[in-house]
Amino acid sequence: MRPCGCPKEGCRSMAQQHRQRLLAVVEPVVTQGGYDLEDLTVTRVGRRHLVRIAVDSDHGVDLDAVAELSRGISTALDAAEAGGDELIAGEYELEVGSPGVDRPLTLPRHWRRNRTRLVKVKAAGREVTGRVVAADDAGVTLDVDGDRQTHAHGELGPGRVQVELKRLAELPDPDDEEIDDEDDEEGEDGE
After folding, report:
1. By three-state DSSP, how is residue 5 classified?
2. Residues near 29 by beta carbon (within 8 Å), at least 6 away in sequence
3. Which residues pair with 161 in a beta bridge?
4. Which residues of 77-104 are buried (b: 16+ CB within 10 A; e: fewer)?
5. What are the residues whose beta carbons fall under 8 Å from the beta carbon of 160, sequence distance 6 or more?
6. What tens-digit pLDDT sequence spans the chain (191 residues)?
7. Using CA atoms, how far apart are residues 94 and 70, in angstroms rounded to an integer?
8. Residue 137, Cβ neighbours under 10 Å: how many?
9. Of 59, 116, 146, 163, which is least surrounded by CB within 10 A?
10. By CB neighbour count within 10 A (0-12 exposed, 13-18 middle, 19+ buried), where does 61 fall?
11. 149: exposed, middle or buried (Cβ count in 10 Å: 0-12, 13-18, 19+)
12. Could you tell me which residues come within 8 angstroms of residue 179 by beta carbon, excluding any fewer than 6 positions away?
């Protein structure tokens, strides 16, 4: 028996049912907004629950979209609970965001959204690091040290995006941009 008094399997089953009820409320809001629901977790933090929702799209997720989705999800959760469906026992904090680079690439859309990124993955039984050149529903093409390799999704383990500091260094330095002083002088004189 667990401290809550129920057998371990009973708690797991209740948690799954609870998660399915939450998904039924949250997923329509996310998909209606044009996003994919990547993950939904509920964890206990002190007396409260933390509801974390990760969303993504082919066009990324900006802060305005996160704020809009957060309001929509919160409204849907409140409406469901007002209708008598207790989704989250007690107080909760809602956190909506994007998955981040540490999310494993497991679905075709994950690979497609990471074209041009360097990834590490187990492919056809061996670990490789390569750049995603192309990705579709059939598979992924990686550039591994100049050698292009195409793998079906079934041959791939979960891929991991590799953070490349070198690519950041290749960005232009904003301090190196030339400033046109003539435009500034004209603006000051009002001419």
Report:
1. coil
2. 69, 72, 73, 76
3. 119
4. beebeeeeeebbeeebebebbbbeeebe
5. 102, 104, 105, 119, 120, 121
6. 444 455 555 556 666 777 888 999 999 999 999 999 999 999 988 889 899 999 999 888 999 999 999 999 999 999 998 888 778 878 889 999 998 888 899 999 999 999 999 999 999 889 999 999 999 999 999 999 999 999 999 999 999 999 888 765 565 665 655 544 444 444 444 44
7. 7
8. 10
9. 146
10. buried
11. middle
12. none
Q: Find tokens 């994950």 and name the residue.
A: 110
109: its two tokens: 């859309």
| Separation between Cα atoms, residue 101 and residue 138, nearest integer Å | 23
Exposure of 127 in the CB half-sphere (CA atoms within 13 A) = 3
- Give the tokens for residue 148: 């292009």
Sign of the Cα torsion 181, 185, 190, 191 reads negative
Q: Of 154, 148, 104, give the one whose Cα is nearest residue 130.
A: 148
